[in-house]
Specification:
Elements: H1 2-10, H2 14-29, H3 34-42, H4 47-58, H5 70-78, H6 84-101, H7 107-122, H8 130-141
Helix pairs in contact: 1-2, 2-4, 4-6, 6-8, 7-8
Length: about 150
């Protein structure tokens, strides 16, 4: 299944295929299941973000990989003002920013940051796209988990 998925995502472009293979290798080593990897990739989570998320899991233990599953993300999205597809862009945005700053964190803190941003958005009358909100919160407040 994963081979076909990687081939589809890379559309025959070797450099893209290598990125997806690296993402899968990192994810599977961290305990992420194939279905969850595909779910995240279909949300638009980029290979580099998947590698970063895998490093977040590795900081604790593989049981944290369940934090990236559809069973966890879908309810979080359902309780927020954002659709599940919006969470993919927000994951990418935060992962890029943390990577640029060289910040490593546990997956629970990473997902908690996104949940906090979504909770803040629920209190606003005018909502910006989730990815932009996460970027703005990071710029204004940095990375916090409480």
């Amino acid at each position: 299944m994963i081979e076909g998925f990687i081939a589809k995502k890379s559309a025959g472009v070797r450099t893209i295929e290598m990125k997806w293979r690296r993402a899968w290798d990192a994810s599977s080593s961290a305990g992420v299941k194939v279905d969850d990897f595909v779910f995240l990739a279909d949300l638009g989570v980029e290979p580099e973000s998947l590698v970063y998320l895998s490093s977040c899991i590795a900081l604790n233990d593989a049981s944290d990989a369940k934090g990236l599953s559809a069973r966890i993300l879908q309810p979080a999205a359902d309780e927020s003002p954002y659709a599940i597809k919006d969470w993919g862009g927000a994951i990418n945005r935060l992962a890029r920013q943390l990577l640029e700053e060289g910040i490593k964190t546990e997956i629970r803190q990473f997902m908690g940051y996104l949940a906090c941003a979504a909770e803040f958005a629920a209190s606003e009358t005018v909502r910006m796209p989730f990815e932009d909100l996460v970027g703005e919160m990071y710029e204004q407040y940095g990375f916090f988990t409480e």
